[in-house]
Amino acid sequence: MLLLNQFTLTGPWQHVNPLYWTKRNVLDWIEYHVDESKYDASELNMEYCFLDGATLCQLSHETFLSMYGALGERLYQSLERHKHKHGKPVVWEGSVVG
Q1: At what angle do helices 72-85 and 61-68 cross, to 10 degrees?
Q2: Contact at 8 Å (CB) between 72 and 23?
Q3: N or C: which end of the chain has fewer CB within 10 A?
């Protein structure tokens, strides 16, 4: 019998403040949403999949829609939920993020 916990199903990005996600965490997060939504990954520009969390957190809603197409809204909402899940805003290089 195979037992899978939440960490196995979602990955380490689920348990880390998005501000600190590595490029691998961001790629895993995008891959998770592609799989969950049955989105055609060939529609994604792979350049936009290799951002770190700090860069991702600075993107506007409009930028998400432009960069990720039909998946953009889902990714933006997910990122916002994760930012709020990890509590109060974080100060990053003189600006408040989150």
Answers
A1: 140
A2: no
A3: N
pTM (2 decimals)? Answer: 0.77
Distance between CA atoms of 71 and 87, rounded to whole angstroms? 25
Helix H segments across the chain? Answer: 6-10, 23-37, 53-57, 61-68, 72-85
User: Is the pLDDT at 11 greater than 60, yes or no?
Assistant: yes
DSSP state of 87: -
3-state SS class at 90: strand
Could you give the angle at the alpha carbon of 84 between the alpha carbons of 72 and 39, nearest 5°? 25
What CA–CA distance (Å, rounded) separates 7 from 91?
27
Residue 86 is predicted with a pLDDT of: 82
